[in-house]
Amino acid sequence: MPTKSEQRQIALALDTIENSITIEEAAIEKTTALKRATMQELFTRGLRGEAQKETEVGPMPESWTIELIGRHFSVVSGGTPSRKRSSFWSEGTVPWVKTTEVNYGVVRETEEQITQAGLEQSAAKLLPPGTLLLAMYGQGVTRGKVAILGIEAACNQACAAINPVDDRVDPKFLYHFLSFRYEEIRRLAHGGQQQNLNLEIVRALPVAYTADRGEQSEIVAILDAIVRKIDLHRRKRAFLDDLFRAFLHKLMTGEISVADLDPSSVGRKTTSELTQEGNR
Q: Which domain of life is it from (predicted)?
């Protein structure tokens, strides 16, 4: 049984981690609110100080255009190889994305992989890096979320895979615009108990954009910078959660002693280290 002095040291160390977690949670909330406000400003006012006009998607700069996604992008779905065929799944090497993995970010790895036979003998398609994915259905808040492929991968039939057929709209610009329109997109779903989107609905989604690709790129750069900040705070929060559990376990099992504690250094991990981890 630790002495009272030792108990105080343990409590201080754990409190230090918990306080750091609280700080990161507040930073995530604040930066997420900044992202929402910035999207509202960028997609309704642009960057060129133009007058606004009212449209079906709300106010936007006078020179901007509204067109359907299907005019400038191909929109297809994927497929699921038969689970009854082990040859479609066993020792698979083709990354296969499910809607639960479409969650506002870059998909660099997947929970499941399919084989080449599974790819060729199903509706699944091999998609290039940079493909924009939109979850057409899924549990809870999944429907309507978007992500971008950072790898060559296939996806299931619940995902819409979106790729440009011309250079009018930057796919990253579309990614951020669809993120901005998340709630409106969800309301377009229909069906029975589980309401879904479909390819027809996705192709008919309006996108408001500037023909100035330079302005599109500037908007993408601004939002990407905020997203990187949010991701950094999330990684720091995840690191602190893991640290708290590991720290508590090692104290309880005697792997570390109270004499080893240095509360001032608990939870210290540099921003550059976490940034490097996020870029891997």
A: Bacteria
Q: What is the pLDDT of residue 8?
A: 79
Q: For residues 273 and 260, what is the distance between their CA atoms, to the nearest angstrom?
A: 24
Question: Which secondary structure element, helix H or strand E, spans residue 72, and what is its range?
Answer: helix 69-72
Per-domain residue ranges of the chain: 4-44+225-278, 65-209
Q: Would you call 136 helix, strand, or coil by DSSP?
A: coil
Backbone torsion region of residue 252, taken as left when φ is above 0, otherwise alpha when ψ lies between -120 and 50, otherwise beta: alpha
Confidence class of residue 2 from pLDDT cuts 50, 70 and 90?
low
- Rounded mean pLDDT of 187-207? 88
Residue type, position 224, single letter = D
* Beta bridge pairs of residue 154: 96
Question: CATH classification of 65-209 is 3.90.1150.10, yes or no?
Answer: no
Specify the pTM. 0.86
Q: Given 3-state DSSP classes, what are the helix, strand and coil percentages for the chain, each rounded to the nearest 5? A: 45, 15, 35
Strand residues in 64-180 grouped as ranges (E): 65-68, 73-77, 94-97, 106-107, 112-114, 132-135, 146-149, 154-155, 159-164
For the record, the structure tokens of 125 come out as 């398609």
Do residues 93 and 109 make contact, with C-beta atoms less than 8 angstroms apart?
no
Residue 53 DSSP class: E
Given a cut of 60, whether residue 233 has pLDDT beyond it is yes
Query: Mean of the per-residue pLDDT values for the chain?
Result: 90
Q: Are 79 and 122 in contact (CB under 8 A)?
A: yes
User: Beta-strand (E) ranges in 63-184?
Assistant: 65-68, 73-77, 94-97, 106-107, 112-114, 132-135, 146-149, 154-155, 159-164
